[in-house]
Design brief:
The chain has 107 residues and is mainly beta. It has one domain. It contains 1 helix and 6 strands; from the N terminus they run H-E-E-E-E-E-E. The structure holds zinc ion (ZN). Zinc ion (ZN) binds next to loops.
Length: 107
Amino acid sequence: MPLVAAMTEPADDRPAPWYDPPPAGFHFEAVAEGDDWELDSTRTCRRSAVGGRFPRPGCGRQSVAVLWRKYGANGRRRWAYCEDHMYGRWIEDGKIMHWILKADEDG
Ligand SMILES: [Zn+2]
């Protein structure tokens, strides 16, 4: 049952940080996202065919998370993403995680 196995696997396969290795004097820390990201598996990934001069094929997969983005003067809209299109984020212990770059000598 590969599907079940994939869903229950612990999140030990974090995506690689965007520099590998980090620049000298810095290291990466995994931190949880703030309120603008939340778990939501009821939507469809918004990564779509709208791609300017070079349209991409739509993703169309089930979302795992949504990003609340400002819309208009005081509205917000949910932008849903599947696990492949969260820009390096990942889900761990029910939280949406991402890497931050920190200076080694911090205080
Ligand atoms: Zn996607």
